[in-house]
TrEMBL record, chains A, B, C:
Described function: Catalyzes the condensation of carbamoyl phosphate and aspartate to form carbamoyl aspartate and inorganic phosphate, the committed step in the de novo pyrimidine nucleotide biosynthesis pathway.
Binding site for L-aspartate: 82, 163, 224
Residues annotated as binding carbamoyl phosphate: 53-54, 103, 131, 134, 263-264
Family to which this protein belongs: Belongs to the aspartate/ornithine carbamoyltransferase superfamily. ATCase family.
Domain Aspartate/ornithine carbamoyltransferase Asp/Orn-binding: 150-298
Name of the protein described by the UniProt record: Aspartate carbamoyltransferase
Gene: pyrB
Organism: Halocalculus aciditolerans
Amino acid sequence: MLGRSLLTAKQLSREDIETVLDRASEFAADPSAAGDRHPGKLLALCFFEPSTRTKMSFETAAKRLGGDVIDMGSVESSSVKKGESLADTVRVIEGYADGIVLRHPKQGAAKMAAEHVDVPLVNAGDGAGHHPSQTLLDLYTIRENAGLDDLTIGIMGDLKYGRTVHSLAHALTNFDVRQHFISPQSLKLPRSVRYDLHEAGAHVREHEELEAVLPALDVLYVTRIQRERFPDEDEYQKVAGQYRITPETLDDAKDDVAVMHPLPRVDEISAAIDDTSNATYFDQAHNGVPVRMALLDSLLQTDD
Amino acid sequence: MLGRSLLTAKQLSREDIETVLDRASEFAADPSAAGDRHPGKLLALCFFEPSTRTKMSFETAAKRLGGDVIDMGSVESSSVKKGESLADTVRVIEGYADGIVLRHPKQGAAKMAAEHVDVPLVNAGDGAGHHPSQTLLDLYTIRENAGLDDLTIGIMGDLKYGRTVHSLAHALTNFDVRQHFISPQSLKLPRSVRYDLHEAGAHVREHEELEAVLPALDVLYVTRIQRERFPDEDEYQKVAGQYRITPETLDDAKDDVAVMHPLPRVDEISAAIDDTSNATYFDQAHNGVPVRMALLDSLLQTDD
Amino acid sequence: MLGRSLLTAKQLSREDIETVLDRASEFAADPSAAGDRHPGKLLALCFFEPSTRTKMSFETAAKRLGGDVIDMGSVESSSVKKGESLADTVRVIEGYADGIVLRHPKQGAAKMAAEHVDVPLVNAGDGAGHHPSQTLLDLYTIRENAGLDDLTIGIMGDLKYGRTVHSLAHALTNFDVRQHFISPQSLKLPRSVRYDLHEAGAHVREHEELEAVLPALDVLYVTRIQRERFPDEDEYQKVAGQYRITPETLDDAKDDVAVMHPLPRVDEISAAIDDTSNATYFDQAHNGVPVRMALLDSLLQTDD
């Protein structure tokens, strides 16, 4: 079973993942049936960086379970401005709440914070580090659309900096999955991640172009290529254009390929995809609620 | 009946208005009796611009109905900063909530957003456009204080830019009302609004001075004249001074004239009015709760 | 009994304090037992200045009592930006809520606001003025750790500007307490506070060094010395260093001396103290919940 805190997707065994995903399926099937799971439980939301999706879906999840949240608010409106350390902040807040969700710009922040508190803590993003509840909702979405075994997935875009991608790739090594990574040369998977995947026995291939591998894919997971990674605008436009998905791009794909994206997107996926049956990214975002309900349900239970 | 979304006061028939106002009266008579109307329902508050009154009264209304809210927070703390489109933002959020309240600086934003979501959406202000729940609470306040038939109302101040005024004037054409508009020449009703009112068969008169028409008024609705509309401070002071309400101003008014204001006021109405029986603007603000309860009650019901 | 509003610790009699503290003890003993005390009650949080502890613990307290909060949000996201007066803001908000918690940068703001509203109002800090619920949680913590009679307390640090210190010192005059004030010459208690304490018959001593008085103390209450009080960095470092608590400092103290701090701390107390049995400051922060539950319980009751 999951321990008291979820800090990285690496701590999740195949069994952990399946337990959370199964429970999420139950919650998704009847969202209003869970209102008596955790009455009166309070979840503290500590977001030191902007968030819409993650914060709102944790809040929704807590409330759908019969609990509620208390929100630290923005850094500007908190004592952090007065120079308080993160350790002190979470030690104070654990006295108010039954669990903590933490997003922080510094890598390792969640791990450090978890060492200072006795309540369950979820890492909701620590800089270039981890964001394991995103990985769980990605896995849930993949399972719903294509299953997690005998799966061929393409992961495309910024593979160098995207924490989402690294966690997902690692978690997929628990399953029978062929992983194809598609990116420009300059945004390839870091050597350390590639090494980890090989160590875990993963089936991994890398490509600079989508074309050759597209017909084999059950899932195409697209991420944003950030303008600021490129020295000049022309270079960015050229690269970004090559990795943009349009209805024409999908002509050579399986009819039921599921197109995913962690959102927000800028223009990696054309709006013309939105109303096709391939568009899976809004469902993916919505899956944040049942998956985070299942996660909180598990963490808050260990608290009783 | 109201449809799934409330985008503009123009979509409200006399029957719609009366249904909402009647229900609001019931809620106002016994605010604590509604706690079991919508248990567990979640309303998403998406405010892309500052708000106190509208946001807090929607939040109060949702909670008094037994529901709750999830708040997108300020634009600075959301994914909007990362360049997400409004359409994408609301499509994600509809997966978390049973309804959306949207305020956005761009005219037409609510209409566009409503086309992208399946949950009920309330326009809580779209730039120079509409703010129909404000109109409903204005109508409720007028009805409580003077009735909506055989009514003589004066609407004074900035009639050119005030979206509140335009929506109210239009909604009043559903009733037997004589509308007097009082403003400096430079802030008169736009020609298009005047045309609409005449088309709707409204009884409309325009004035530059309050004096002549004041004795006939049952209701005097005052709005703020914004400093930035005037090229220099002297000109502003001269104009603003003419349209400022003091106890002396009301000497020639009916004893029970109801003085209204959408708030916030700066100094259009002297604080000396606050404790008179004519001061209706705080009640007007408070009426936001039962009126928005009635509105949400209607919209969330269509959701079942 | 407490009146409708809590504006300053000076309004609290010994009996008031004991009533709140006794009730807080009951809530602390069984936090989940209070969920049916105030179902449906709404507390408005109006924070015109940053806060973590005070705001989150009031929110937690309201929710643990079965109620909920509505949050004005930051000044930047409210109508205050449009030039609304504080009096108007609270008069509007009282129509939404069953009580108001107000923090405001201007001294006297809470008193003025309370005169304009009929719902209970708690002063959660008015600039250099008062913060009485902090005093109550300080008293609670002292009582839990050392009792409030036959007590010897040392209060150290910035005694000149700290509103927390002034309120606590005054409240302690209700009990049999020997108060020792330890600070650099430039940050001594203001003459007016010293005068008040003598008038109230308090046992008061002032010191520039902790050393001599430390062995006698049951409680050592430390506050932050702010850098900006000093003309240059060297001077600040010299002074701050003298009033910093380390495990070595405590060698000469009673074994069970309780070290308190209103938090946030910067480095007035070494992290090496955190895991000792003397460290009482995190408990002190956590005590904000039962104490504010007891306070709200009392104030909201008078509302029925």
